[in-house]
Amino acid sequence: MKLLQYILFIIKIENVELYFIKNQNKPICANCKYFVPTNNECSKFGEINIITNEHIYEDAIIVRMDDNKCGEDAMFFKKNYFKFITIPYYSIIENKDTINLLLSAVVSPILLTFFIFYCALQLFKC
After folding, report:
1. In this predicted structure, what is the pLDDT of residue 10?
2. Which pLDDT score is estimated for 14?
3. Where in the chain are the domains?
4. Positions in the chain short of pLDDT 70
């Protein structure tokens, strides 16, 4: 009997703790299609440098704190259904030099091997 009371008490405590968490029912920027995860920026609000064509976005926290922009209730929130694509995309953009180096180290030997076999096949074809 005491065990049952203990279990019910734990369940009640877990339900009570949820009431103290602020903003738990509001949209999360990380799930928005405008969120840039590498810099915690919002691509909905920003500008483009007309000289270098560089995108300069505002920080997501500033956008969420400003009621004239997205605000605390996330007025412009749109669910990102392609998060599995966008997160690797921004990661690749940020680390493009390293990835290019790795690809050149892997692809070059493969292409060289293919070229050697192709030339050998051409020689033995005659």
Report:
1. 60
2. 53
3. 2-94, 95-126
4. 1-20, 87, 95-96, 99-103, 125-126
Please state, in angstroms and rounded to a whole number, the distance separating the CA atoms of residues 87 and 39: 12
Residue found by looking up tokens 């915690």 in the block: 40
Q: Where are the alpha helices (DSSP H) in the chain?
A: 2-17, 60-65, 83-94, 96-125
Handedness of CA 53, 54, 60, 65 (dihedral sign): negative
Average pLDDT, the chain: 77
The reported pTM is: 0.52
Both tokens of 88, joined, read 């690797």
- Cα dihedral: 79, 85, 86, 87 (round 10): 110
Q: Please work out, in degrees rounded to the nearest 5, the angle formed at the alpha carbon of residue 57 by the alpha carbons of 86 and 100.
A: 50
Starting at the edge strand that comes first in sequence, how are the strands of the sheet with 55-59 ordered? 35-36, 41-48, 55-59
24/26 Cα distance (integer angstroms): 6
Question: 94 is written with which tokens?
Answer: 């940020």
Output the furthest CA–CA distance in the chain (Å, rounded). Answer: 90
